[in-house]
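for the record, two folds in this file. i put them one after another cuz i was lazy. first one right below, seq on top, structure tokens after. the second one comes after a little note so u can tell where it starts
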Amino acid sequence: MTLDINYLRGTMAAVLSMLQHSTCPENLSFHFLSAHSEPELSASINQTFPYLTFRIYNFNPNWVRGKISRSIRQALDQPLNYARIYLADILPSEVGRVIYFDSDIIVVDDIDKLWNVTWKVRSSRRPSTATPTSPRTSPTGFGPTGSWLGPSRGGGHVTSTRV
């Protein structure tokens, strides 16, 4: 998840929603990507969630400078929006698997269900990314919004893409 002082409230709400809906919140660890080293970010997280296991990694905005089209809307022209593309380069090798969430989400079910999804991995050299798809926006239209239960039980589904 990205971490920025301008979106700190959203990030805190996202983290809280994951902790509240997790059957084992002590098993969750968070890896935040930030474009600036701001001590108040770490202090705010520590103060709000004193037992949270987390680490903040630096994302270098120069990695995407000149690669972002000026024709996109202004909200998307911030380099931190593209940090997720560089996760494999930023996170240490001992972090073998992550679930990436935008900082403007609220989790309404235990993310352990998503964590336990079995992926077919054809190559250990190239990571897979998964994007949750709402049944309302899905071209297959899987009925009412649900959790990670799958289409047969009214939930959304996950699409997997090679990167």
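(here's the note) second protein begins now
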Amino acid sequence: MLEAGGVNEAKEVRTPVGLPKLFKSALDWNLYSTPQHAANKRSIYLARGKLLGGSSATNATLYHRGSIEDGVHGTGGLMRVENPRYNNPLHEVFFQAAKQAGIPENDNFNDWRRSQVGYGEFQVTQSRVAVSRGVTFQLNCQDGNKHSAELAPGGEVVLCAGSIHSPQILQLSGIGPQGQLREKGIPVVVDLPGVGKNMQVCSLPSK
């Protein structure tokens, strides 16, 4: 495994409530989008983890199954999933307001056999687990040289660097829109216009 960043032993990583302190920290890539027309030409901050486990180590630990086949809850295993142990005093007030407004209650957002519309509890993992096997690879080493690794004969690469860094790595490797690659002086290996296009992100309002 080749992973950017360091270990994920910081207390802000191990404790879900520490999530806000990870934003724009040394454990974050501190990325911003290009100016967006739909956001009054503002650049949008894009939180991405720069540590072992990537953004999976810098999230709110919400747990949500993504397929109908996973609709039945299991027990045991390495990942403990449960309702949040702490609720803000406004928690029940918000639920009561939703009920009074006629919004249906959803007591299980992981049950894909029915509509997911409604208010209710999201399950969380109370701890984050990140396992690594292999090496940490650093391009700019202390000796001032750039090092590379070669793939063994018959080997394959599984690229899972997230929605931003995956297309970046592909484009730097010559896979992407040929016009854009040539503009940056990158030799074209595969002309694949969709690389780096059509990303959608859910932004949160703030002061």
